[in-house]
Amino acid sequence: MIGGHAVVKRRISSGQAMLGGFGINIFTENDFMAIHYGTLEVLEKTGVFVDNPEAIDLYESGGARVDRSNKKVKIPASLVDECLHSAPKKVLLAGRDAKNDILLEGTRVHFCSFGIGLNVYDPFTGAYRKSTKKDVGDVARLCDYLEDIDMLECTLTPNDVHPNVYNLHILEANLRNTTKPCLSDPDPGLFPWILEMASAVAGGEDKLRERPIISGIVCPQSPMTFHHSCCEGIMQYARHELPMIVLPMAMAGGTSPVTLAGTVISHNVEVLAGLVLAQIVHKGAPIIYGSSTTMLDLKTATATVGCPELAMLNAALAKMAQFYLLPSWVAGG
């Protein structure tokens, strides 16, 4: 505490010159510019597919060229630059307890749980079984205790509740069992109840806006496709000024170019297109540059998580976020 106020948690920064440290400098300044200009060219000449009429209207109102016959949106460089300028460079992720607040800024590194698991080994019986809502709460309580976990994502699936309301039950279990910031899937149909629940915990919508104890996460469909619910999530969170992670999950060689450089550009296109939509809805809407992009295993046609390429891609994309002065949230393997 300083002067009666809780101090926001700021962990050490990546890339610092420290004894015993290790870092990866993926790009030169010229590389950053080449990727940026390549991204702008794709956004303006190829565009993105947007399967949401309201989002198409918003893009057009912001200055993008739209073709409603094929749902293509082409975004000029001037609009991208304007939206990058208005996006916050720091994003607060608040906890129910202010001592667990974290501020995403610069090169500071924080850690988050990940999911979503379908099964668990029961810690008491050793049985391998479907996960339940109680398991979700138990894992949230464990993460609340672990000081190196700074925020909580939906780690497990509550198979004992109706799948149409999974996300409400996950958020309730997390909010009841941790005082750390929580990520929530912004299911468009459930958003009013997600907002109501989080507002009740925070002390009202104004308090939630001031101290966002939840943040959202949406995944564009690679390559460069924004389906209806993805757009809804971005728009809903932007209107309420709640943090949103735009998280492409491309697979190089499958849903994005087989070259890592090409995948970085297509991924960057998806994040910036989502950021532009959010800024058109509300200038200053907090957007976090996300990535869970990896390689396609050409033998099994599955995403390879934990491969060297995942580490390389996500290190590269975190650097792109730093290039834009945006906070990032990327897969760690």
Provide an overview of this structure.
With 333 residues, the protein is of the alpha/beta class. It has a single domain, classed as Trimethylamine methyltransferase-like (TIM Barrel, Alpha-Beta Barrel). Strands 8-9-11-13-16 form a five-stranded parallel β-sheet. It has a four-stranded mixed β-sheet with strand order 2-3-1-10. A three-stranded mixed β-sheet has the order 12-14-15. Strand 4 and strand 5 form a beta hairpin. Helix 1 crosses helix 9, helix 4 runs parallel beside helix 5 and helix 9 packs across helix 10.
Present the secondary structure layout.
Elements: H1 29-46, E1 48-50, H2 53-62, E2 65-67, E3 72-74, H3 77-86, E4 90-93, E5 102-105, E6 119-121, E7 128-130, H4 133-145, H5 166-177, E8 182-184, H6 191-202, H7 205-210, E9 214-218, E10 225-226, H8 228-239, E11 244-246, E12 251-252, H9 260-281, E13 287-291, E14 294-297, E15 302-304, H10 308-323, E16 328-330
Parallel strand pairs: 1-10, 8-9, 9-11, 11-13, 12-14, 13-16
Antiparallel strand pairs: 1-3, 2-3, 4-5, 6-7, 14-15
Helix pairs in contact: 1-9, 2-9, 3-9, 4-5, 5-6, 8-9, 9-10
Number of domains: 1
Low-pLDDT parts are: none
Give the beta-strand count: 16
Helix content: 25-40%
Strand arrangement across the biggest beta sheet: 8-9-11-13-16
The CATH topology is TIM Barrel
| N to C succession of SSEs | HEHEEHEEEEHHEHHEEHEEHEEEHE
Number of H- or I-type helical stretches = 10
Percent strand = 15-25%
